[in-house]
User: Fold this.
Amino acid sequence: MTEHHIFTMPFARGYPMYVQKAERKNRTRVEVDQIICWLTGYDAAGLQRQIERQADFAAFFAEAPTMHPNCALITGVVCGVRVEDVKDPLMQKIRFLDKLIDELAKGKAMHKILRQ
Assistant:
């Protein structure tokens, strides 16, 4: 089975898309960064390092300090697929991030996005 092309895509290429999606709905880059850091355990400097070194999505998630234990509470549909049903662990992490950014863009309160 071949890997999905997003696994080898640089995270730095996807990151601006997350920010643009949020900003189109009057949300901020700071909120996007907060979501990414909450999900992955990166701090702001660690996130910036990954962006600067052009880490692909596979490396970005493999090197994440720790996935937040509440990421298991992320449910719903992204691109017609239920995120909780995604079998590939890496694809599921990517879909978790997609779902959180979707929730941000839809105006959901940050404490709800972060499952607090």
